[in-house]
Write a structure and sequence with these properties.
Blueprint: E1 6-10, E2 16-17, E3 33-37, E4 70-71, H1 76-81, E5 86-87, E6 91-96, H2 102-114, E7 120-124, H3 129-138, E8 146-150, H4 154-162, E9 169-173, H5 190-207, E10 210-215, H6 228-232, E11 235-241, E12 247-255, E13 263-269, E14 272-275, H7 279-283, E15 294-301, E16 304-316, E17 324-327, H8 331-343, E18 352-358, H9 370-382, E19 390-392, E20 395-396, E21 402-403, H10 408-417, E22 422-426, E23 439-443, H11 446-471
Helix pairs in contact: 9-11
Length: 472
């Protein structure tokens, strides 16, 4: 019986099946299974003759390097995300929506490194050399000593990198356009992406050059191709942004040589991406302090404290099923906060539409925003504007207790630096604190904070009634 020379591979998750199916059993994706040859590359069957390996040299754990382990690019926000600069021999995968500015960021980083006497090679698989030069000229980077190439064959690219002086920084835009002769499938398939990425990563480890791979993203915002590529590289970055805002956020979701969830903030201008040194001022710049339903959250992104405005709108719903719309936060977390307010605080929002927005296009992932979200919802419901000089942070449990959060000192110092005078924090975070020019108000139960805001609503309502009576 003849041996099979083909297999069926899901282009979304990389699962291998014996036969074609319309739906992948591993990731439930439709029409993603494609027949691929298994004659070579990763996943191919063993050869007829055993392959004998060669011994490799072993070195002790302790040693000294001739060169610095990191190289700074000169772009402060980019170096912050990497933990202080690019690590020699590292492989970096960066993804983002089309047109978000990935190529702009990388050509700026390439030019900045070249001006610091680094050997930089920029390989484009999507644009011609004239198009890359046009972008560099528009950004004022034409004088930078960056070597360009427009190529998609991985063997030719590796031969080019190995010929001549060893590069320090290599950009491959994008990995989905690369292909190798060893795999009999179209560029962009799981086998091609995985094999090309592995070849480039092997070169980075052997040569000491830092290689940046640009990856396309799916409709869900995830980097397209097999997830194994994310496990192979050292650092995974996502370039986030909103079409309605000029701000761009570079977020590290994986970093073997630095902190994860670190962010760098940029502003897209006509001259390219500009660094934003103080993101808190950026996200609070257009704040209307006298509007009900707005609170200031002191959050942490990586190692950086950031103050951002939480906006909430609660209104009576004419629909049988009220709407719940969330931008920049977890919708499941909002559902939990609404349930706690209902069950523990007696706040009935089941007949109200709830809209929640994180101003500035920032996406918040930490549970420390629970308290700021809760007070913004109560403020919108009661019509009482929160104090403009106050910040909030704390995690709300299902029992209604306000739990402590890490890095409270950094949050409070950032708030004090920006002129805030009062911080509402969990009681456990206030233990052992000394005066820092910021009034600290502690809260143990969410019920107490809701009651104080409701009392202000009653007072405001009584004053409004008195004014009406006097005018009559």
């Amino acid at each position: 019986m003849a041996k099979r020379t083909a297999q069926f591979v899901c282009q979304t998750c990389g699962a291998v099946t014996a036969r074609w199916a319309g739906k992948c059993e591993s990731c439930s994706a439709w029409n993603s299974i494609v027949e691929e040859s298994e004659s070579g590359g990763i996943g191919g069957g063993p050869g007829k003759k055993p392959i004998k390996g060669r011994p490799v040299s072993l070195v002790p754990l302790q040693g000294e390097e001739d060169e610095a382990p990191r190289r700074q690019s000169g772009i402060g926000e980019l170096d912050r995300v990497f933990g202080g600069g690019f690590v020699r021999g590292s492989a970096i995968l960066i993804g983002g929506d089309p047109g978000i500015g990935k190529s702009t960021l990388l050509i700026q980083a390439s030019a900045a490194l070249a001006r610091l006497n680094a050997k930089v090679i920029y390989i484009s698989g999507e644009e011609a050399i004239a198009q890359v030069r046009l972008r560099a000229d528009r950004l004022g980077l034409s004088d930078a000593d960056v070597s360009l190439a427009a190529e998609t064959n991985i063997e030719d690219i590796l031969a080019t990198l190995s010929h001549g002086p060893q590069p320090d920084f290599v950009v491959v835009d994008s990995i989905q356009t690369m292909w190798t002769d060893r795999i009999e499938s179209a560029p962009g398939t799981v086998s091609q992406v995985r094999s090309c990425a592995q070849a480039l990563i092997r070169y980075a480890k052997q040569s000491g050059a830092a290689i940046v791979l640009v990856g396309h993203v799916t409709k869900d915002g995830q980097i397209a191709g097999p997830r194994v590529v994310e496990h192979m590289v050292d650092t995974v970055l996502y370039f986030e942004g909103d079409a309605g805002h000029q701000f761009r956020i570079l977020r590290a979701v994986k970093n073997r040589f630095g902190p994860t969830d670190e962010i760098g903030v940029f502003e897209m201008t006509g001259a390219g991406l500009q660094e934003v040194a103080n993101p808190s001022l950026l996200f609070l710049g257009e704040r209307d302090a006298g509007t009900p339903g707005a609170s200031v959250f002191a959050g942490i992104e990586g190692t950086r404290p950031i103050l951002v405005e939480i906006q909430a709108l609660v209104s009576a719903s004419p629909l049988g099923t009220p709407r719940r719309a969330v931008i920049g936060w977890d919708s499941n977390r909002l559902a939990m906060i609404l349930a706690v307010l209902d069950a523990r605080c007696g706040v009935r929002l089941g007949s109200h539409d709830v809209y929640l927005n994180v101003a500035g296009g920032l996406k918040i992932n930490e549970p420390a925003a629970d308290l700021a979200v809760a007070v913004a919802l109560i403020s919108s419901l009661t019509g009482v504007a929160l104090p403009a000089e106050s910040v909030y942070f704390g995690e709300v449990s299902l029992s209604g207790a306000v739990r402590p959060v890490p890095l409270s000192d950094s949050r409070i110092k950032e708030a004090h630096k920006l002129g805030f005078q009062r911080a509402v924090i969990p009681a456990r975070n206030a233990e052992g604190r000394s005066g820092e020019g910021l009034a600290i108000e502690t809260v143990e139960l969410l019920t107490d904070l809701v009651a104080s805001i409701a009392a202000q609503s009653t007072t405001v309502g009584a004053e409004a009634s008195d004014d009406t009576a006097l005018s009559s």
